[in-house]
Amino acid sequence: MKAAFLTGLRRMEIFDAPRPESCSPGEVLVRVEAVGICGSDVHTYSEGRIGGQAAKYPWIVGHECAGTVEQVGPEVKKNLRPGRRVAIDPLIVCGRCDQCTTGRRHTCRNQKFLASPGQAPGALAEYLVMPAECCFEIPVQMSMTLATLVEPVAIGIYTVGLSQIGQNDSAAVLGTGPIGLSVLLALRNAGCAKVFATDLLDYRLEFACRFGARWAGSPQQQDVVGEMLKRSPAGLDVVFECAGRQETLDQGLRLLRPGGKLMMVGIPETDRITMDIHLARRHELTFQNVRRQNECVERAIDFVSRHQQEISSMATHRFPLSRVQEAFETVAGYRDGVVKAIVEI
Fold it and tell me: Which domains does the chain have, with CATH numbers?
């Protein structure tokens, strides 16, 4: 089978790789049809690492994926059979540790995540074997492109639920790439009407306004903290930091009301960040890290089904597997108005 391998910093190459001919009793063999390029993939592509995990080349990246079932293991109990179209949860868990048994599968102590260095190879290949519990059938009217967007939308749904934000609360989303836009959609769905947004790119600010932001601005063009506090003088209840940058974390602290909550969604490039601890202490702020999504795939499939036109607009670019290098360069360089690039296998 053909697979796209990361063979060095900013270098993707397509090689022949062994095709899985069968799957274990509880697994499913999937013919991959579409893979979305995520910001975490770009970290690995551009920096050779994500968080504290460094890639060993060659390595297959990509985890936002969808495809068609080719084969089902004999012990699979889910209603899956060849020909079924599925969205894939890229997290493989043990199901036995203290985290899995207490409703925290996303922090499984023995997890393997697709494309995460040292864990499980990614999805930029023609075929993929996954546990059946990671495969979720999609409606007949849902395209494979939309199915790849289920994963980032699930993160948005999980993040907003974890924040416990109320309908009368105010919020800001700092960074409106695909994850930030998914958070905006989830906030709107939760009935939160007073939402602001920021980004460095004007076209993403336009997306933010379409996706529910009451006001959106760029810190390169104006004092975004001052503009939001003009509109919400007491401060904001929740800030969703989706850029993973020191400056947006600083902005989040300044935006929050006393007792407010900072949701740390973005993945920083650096190993350490700093904060104004005196401001955080005086205002008794809460910091909540967010890791992926916790069993929100089925909810996300339903959500995507009900908002297909809006969510499909995030898939601004499509590339065949043969142009995977161009796809990554487009996303890494924020070229050509890209929000989400899809590689069609």
Answer: 2-149+314-344 (3.90.180.10), 153-289 (3.40.50.720)
Q: Which of 109, 99, 112, 117 is nearest to 52 (CA)?
A: 117
Name the residue among 4, 12, 39 with its Cα closest to residue 340: 39
Q: For the chain, give the number of residues.
A: 345
Whole-model pTM: value is 0.96
The token duo for 162 is: 């974890």
Residue 242 near residue 198, CB atoms below 8 Å: no
Task: List pLDDT tens digits, range 262-318.
Answer: 999 999 988 899 999 999 999 999 999 999 999 999 999 999 999 999 999 999 999
**Crossing angle for the helix pair 297-306 and 178-189, to the nearest 10 degrees:** 80
Give the largest Cα separation in the chain, rounded: 61
Please state, as a whole number, how many other Cβ atoms lie within 10 Å of the Cβ of residue 185: 22
By C-alpha distance, which of 190, 195, 209, 274 is closest to 238? 195
Residue 33 tokens read as 């049809």
Whole-number Å distance between alpha carbons of 263 and 123: 29
- CA-to-CA distance for 114 and 148, rounded, in angstroms? 14
